[in-house]
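fwd from M.: "can u put these together and see what the complex looks like"

so here's what she sent:
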Amino acid sequence: MFGCMKLKRGVFPGRFQPPHYGHVKAIKWALDKVADELIVIIGSAQDSFSLKNPLTAGERFTLLRKLLVNEAGSYLHRISIVPVMDINSNKQWVRYLEMLLPPFNTVISGNPLVQLLFEDSGYEVYTPPMFSRSKCSGTYIRKAIIEGSQWEDCVPETIVEDLNKMGFAERLKRLSRGDE
Amino acid sequence: MFGCMKLKRGVFPGRFQPPHYGHVKAIKWALDKVADELIVIIGSAQDSFSLKNPLTAGERFTLLRKLLVNEAGSYLHRISIVPVMDINSNKQWVRYLEMLLPPFNTVISGNPLVQLLFEDSGYEVYTPPMFSRSKCSGTYIRKAIIEGSQWEDCVPETIVEDLNKMGFAERLKRLSRGDE
Amino acid sequence: MFGCMKLKRGVFPGRFQPPHYGHVKAIKWALDKVADELIVIIGSAQDSFSLKNPLTAGERFTLLRKLLVNEAGSYLHRISIVPVMDINSNKQWVRYLEMLLPPFNTVISGNPLVQLLFEDSGYEVYTPPMFSRSKCSGTYIRKAIIEGSQWEDCVPETIVEDLNKMGFAERLKRLSRGDE
Amino acid sequence: MFGCMKLKRGVFPGRFQPPHYGHVKAIKWALDKVADELIVIIGSAQDSFSLKNPLTAGERFTLLRKLLVNEAGSYLHRISIVPVMDINSNKQWVRYLEMLLPPFNTVISGNPLVQLLFEDSGYEVYTPPMFSRSKCSGTYIRKAIIEGSQWEDCVPETIVEDLNKMGFAERLKRLSRGDE
Amino acid sequence: MFGCMKLKRGVFPGRFQPPHYGHVKAIKWALDKVADELIVIIGSAQDSFSLKNPLTAGERFTLLRKLLVNEAGSYLHRISIVPVMDINSNKQWVRYLEMLLPPFNTVISGNPLVQLLFEDSGYEVYTPPMFSRSKCSGTYIRKAIIEGSQWEDCVPETIVEDLNKMGFAERLKRLSRGDE
Amino acid sequence: MFGCMKLKRGVFPGRFQPPHYGHVKAIKWALDKVADELIVIIGSAQDSFSLKNPLTAGERFTLLRKLLVNEAGSYLHRISIVPVMDINSNKQWVRYLEMLLPPFNTVISGNPLVQLLFEDSGYEVYTPPMFSRSKCSGTYIRKAIIEGSQWEDCVPETIVEDLNKMGFAERLKRLSRGDE
């Protein structure tokens, strides 16, 4: 069924705040069903220590790679990870990715804005199946941490440990106290 | 009464998301009562595909010019349209317009921030009479589209058709689903 | 007790919208207890004429210096004031200050984000004792002005007069009417 | 011969430091032979008071419009003038113009970089016939002014007068003394 | 001898205009002698279609990966390629890389500025042995192309073919005709 | 003779690469003859580790303050030092300084571009008398260091020592070897 989609290079943009099981499932699905090769884009790479982007791009890069090594090891040689900073113009964003990256012909994303921008530039867009999204989005996890509720099911134990070493929960809670 | 204001070049800044009857009325009023010549500034020209600025500057330029051709044709030779990108400093904004544009000596705007900034730089500011503003502001139209309520009265039929061809309503609704 | 902290140069970042008694108390405390010398950073120096930053950096510089001359004159020779523009990356902010300023070894701030960023870069952070903070923060003062309630107790009379000459209350009220 | 090119909107990018007869000839040629409508782009609009760009975008806008009124009056209703600031990426420049401007389908330019970038984005590029280019380029005029040699033949008398009122020659000579 | 340097992650910054044998030799040397893992940074990623940076970051990424696949296949699993845009502050550059990338502890570079900046930030810097650098630097290759002299020895045949398909020589020659 | 110029606040912009006797003389002259108070602007504050700007703003701030303490101690209470980053528009530069700094009404500078920009904004400009400028400009000192000739006469011994501790000569020489 997806045979005709083979021999494709896809991009998978995300912010990975933090990386979680949902990302792993979506990346595996993309490489099983849509693309031969995947460029995983760590978006908003310039941002960190904010409520929306608590982790730096480098921290996300490290965690994401470890997550993929542990949970998607056999896919690893088909994946590149590239941090990409935001630009101030949505309309230019896809062209900017085309400039920075090797040629790609498809995108895998569940994000409405990403989908809209790639369709506007003429790309095929694939929506990965949800993985308990109500519980395991980055937004959910960050909210759960600030409120002190359970979130550790969304992330493998080894990543939880690394997040703890980075002081992720503490950082988020302090950021939630605001900037004045 | 407005005789002394003649022989003036005015600026009329707006975001035109989308252009509507209120803009036409204000531009005609400005050219009838305040200015001999008008530079219509399409502000936030770098932004698009966002809830506040769904259309690109080029789309707004095209729609606005068509709107003026149809609804204010006899004024057209006294109007220039110039897209202008935001800068990150309100205090510098008027000076930045002075640098980019031919000399002007007045501004026509109902926007409180625009009025404040031009007055701070020593300009005369004119507030155009409202045109059913409660219903026909850009903010109202964008909200009506997202909520599925009536908005087409604010815009001539031919512009509604062009907006439909651009997928304006669809774009806005998808943007309203958020960025993650 | 604080003897070992002597011979230190500290930084005291703030936005000073507007400068108030709380700033004076904190600066005196910092120079009494923590640092020999203090660089007072006027942050978000590029911003003005916004609800969060109504005053320009230059207006804040002028008011703050007058406030310190009047209320902390004997400390003045140990204080430098430096306006600093924001950058788009929290993680880089402390390194950026290190690049712009003479070497410093401590920070005095009650702001959770500032504290987090300096600790992340390995600095000692001191929290100054609150001065009726519930009433005399910049946020409180700006809110009180917009709502027409009392705020003049937070600021010496001479600074209130200067703020009135600058049209501070009028500016804030007009900004609160929004940007369209 | 050019019938099939009719019904086209062209862009004509330049820096106009200063506007001269060569620009007039090229614009007339473009509207005679290539395009129904022309958007004249004043490039590097952010720059001024430099050896390469002594005039501000606003000064160039004013001079260029006057030049066209005087020398190409019958073409005026088919011309728009738009100042455009540089971006830091040549590869994105054409996409950036597409975002800012109404749709266009051709470009008229003798500049090798402009030609290359538009061709790279799939546009037809037309090279206007040279108008004594060896003598009447912006580069030639600026060099002649600094060296005190003759340049006034390249520009109509009325524009020479305006340049003199702006202190163009004086400005250029002072800029040539360098920055430090 | 290099045993103590093992278990290290290094960065190898370059502009790769174009990728050539010198890069392959240096990368192999770095992975043989200095680092367990290497992040190859494609610098000045925002720039292209200029004399110094004719190729886009995406073109360089594609060519470099192909070059490494062909000439350093057994090293490939130890290499990541990341395009990085310039910032406007040399002093911040190393900190900016630390923010964007997984933790690294060494740098391999023959570039004097890169060496200086990393040493200033406390890093060990390794200079790779030169590979006929007088002939096979990017600067040499670009100059040779513009002057029409021989350069193809510096690059494997398959990369020469790809450069020809991209119109590399033609692009460079046209860029050398200048921007006005 | 200069009585009428008293009660003035002046700005003295420079790059201070490095600070030298010429700066001291000019600052003293400015405070003797022109201004009651002086804001010394450390320009191009974002730049460092380049041939034109080898020192960071912080290093220049530190050296300049020490130079003034040693050589102009009795003037110190009338001097503020403020690092200021470049913006990309000469025309806006004076307005940008007006936004960042307390009100000033004069400028002291021997730099042709600075003089031109302030005059264009309607300021009085004072040219300080030269202090053996042929030998003691920043440009001369940096050139002398790279060429290994004598420069130490331009700077007090204690500043030479500090420059040596910072590795100033070494840094400049390495930067002169170029960026590839």
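replying to her w this: Residues 57-71 of chain B form the longest helix (15 residues).
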